[in-house]
Amino acid sequence: MIWIKIKYRFYLYVHTFLFQLGFANRLLKNRFGERIIVFHGIDETGETKYNSRFHSVQFFEKFIQYVVANYNVISLEDFYAKKFKPNTLNIAITFDDGYLNNYKYAVPILEKYEVPATFFITTIQNKANYLWPDFLDLVSFYTSKNEIIFENNLYVKNKKKEFVFNGVSLKNRCKKLTFDELKSIFTIFEEEWEKIQKKPLEDYWQLMNDTQINLIAKNKLFTIGSHSYTHANLTMIPFEEAKFEILKGKEILETIGSKSIVEFAFPFGSYNLELVNYCRNIGFKRVLLVDYNSEKDQRIAALKSRFVMNPYVGFEMQILYLLKGKYV
Ligand SMILES: [Zn+2]
Asked: What percent of the chain has pLDDT over 70?
C-alpha cells in the first residue's frame, strides 16, 4: 500500500513537471472521456479556512480558459444526450448551493468565454438567507464559546474548531436532522452571526435572490436545477420529509424562473434509489450525485456522478486529477 502511494506521488511529481514544461497534451492524450464537474463557491482569494469549498476567481478564470482551449465543454443537457467529441475530454460544468458569489464572480467569466453551466440552487430563502452548513462553519470559526448544549448534549470545541459530542461533530449530527429539528443552532450562535454579518464575509454564506436566479434562468448559456429546499441530507431524514424537500425546491424554482426544472443534485451527494425514483416521477430528467453508491447504479441513465473540484490542489494537479477522473 505504501509503495503504491510512493509510486503514485512520484508519478504525479513527474507529470506535474512535464506539464509545466508544456508536454501536457502529449502526455495525457490517452486520458480522455467524460466528466461532469462540480464547483461550490468562488471568492476573491480562494479562502479555505472556513470550509473546503471555495476557489479563487483567478483560478476559476484560468481553469475556464484552459478547458475551453483544450477540451469540449458542453451543457448538461448535451452531456446527457452524449453530444461528445472523440479524442478529447468532454466536460459539463455545474455549481451547487446557489451562492451569490456564483452570480458575482463565475457568471461574468462563463459569459466572457461563452461556457454553458448549470446552477443547482437551494431554495431556502423564505426560511433563512444562508445554508445551515455555511452558518455552522462560520460561527464555529469565530465563536469564543468552547462548549454549547444542543439537544441536551454538551458539545465541546476541538482543535479543528468543530463542536463534538461523543465523537460526533455538530455538523454530522445536523446532517441527520430536518431543518426544523436543527434550527436551534441559529439561536445558540445568534450573537456570533450578528457579528459575522457585519464582516466582509458575505461571499461565504450569501445566497442568490430571486432576481439573480431569474437572470441566470433567462440566460441561454445557463440552466438552473434544484438542490433541494433546505439542504438537508435526504437519506438521513424521514422519507416523507425528503420527498417534500425535493418537491418544494422544484416548485419554488419553477415559480421564480417561470419554466420547468428538470435537473436535481442531491445535497451532500447523498442518495438512495427510492429518492431517485421519486425525482424521476415528479419530472426530473437529470439527477446528479457525487459518487455512485454501487456499480449497478451506473446503469440508470438519468443518474450521473460528478467530479468535485478541490481547492487544495494546484492548477496543474487539478487538471491531472480531472483527466484521471479521481483523486487517488
Ligand atoms: Zn450542496
From this structure: 91
What's the CA gap between 189 and 185, in Å, rounded? 6
Distance 10 CA to ligand 1 centre (A): 34
pLDDT-derived band of residue 14, with 50, 70 and 90 as boundaries? low
Q: Cell triple for residue 65?
A: 480558459
Backbone angles phi and psi of 222, in degrees to 5:
-115, 155
Cα 30 from Cα 178, distance rounded (Å): 45
CA of 145 to the centre of ligand 1 (A): 27
Q: For position 1, what pLDDT does the model report?
A: 45
Distance (Å) from CA 19 to ligand 1 centroid: 32
Domains (range + CATH), the chain: 12-122+207-324 (3.20.20.370), 132-198 (no CATH)
Reported residue count of the chain is: 328
Band of pLDDT at residue 127, cut at 50, 70 and 90: confident
Following DSSP, what letter does each residue of 162-211 receive, concatenated?
Answer: -EEETTEEHHHHHTTS-HHHHTHHHHHTHHHHHHHHHSS-GGGTPBP-HH
Residue of 73, 65, 64 lying closest to 35 (CA atoms): 73
